[in-house]
Design brief:
The protein has four helices and six strands; from the N terminus they run H-E-E-E-H-H-E-E-E-H. By secondary structure, it is α+β, with helices and mostly antiparallel strands.
Length: 124
Amino acid sequence: MNTAASVDPRIQEVRVTEDEIIARLVDGRVISIPLAWSWRLSEATPRQRARFRLIGSGQGVHWPDVDEDISVEGMLRGVPAHRPKSVAAPKRGGSTRDQDAPNKRIQPTRGRRRVQVGGRGARG
C-alpha cells in the first residue's frame, strides 16, 4: 500500500508575497505556487491578499475581498486558474469589448415560415 496516497494534506500556515503563495502543511511540507496562477490575487491589492482565512480544517484558503479559494490539493496538483472570458481584463484603451468577436445578433432563418405571436391572425 502506498502511504503517500493515504495522507490527507492540510494547511497549517499561509504566507502571501508579491510573487507567490506559500503554505506550510501540518505534516511539515512547505509548498508554493506562483501568485500569477490566481488572476484574482495577482490583481488584488497587498491588503486584500493579506486578508485570508483557512477553510475546511486546513483543506484550503479563502480570500473574502476577492472571492478566491485555493485548495491544498490544487496547489499540489499545480494547475493554475484561468480567467473566465466574461471577466476579461480591459484591453489598452480601456475597452473590455472584444473587437474580434462575431456578431451574435439572431438572424432570421431562411426558408422557414415565421410564426406570428399574439391575437392578430391567430385562429381559434
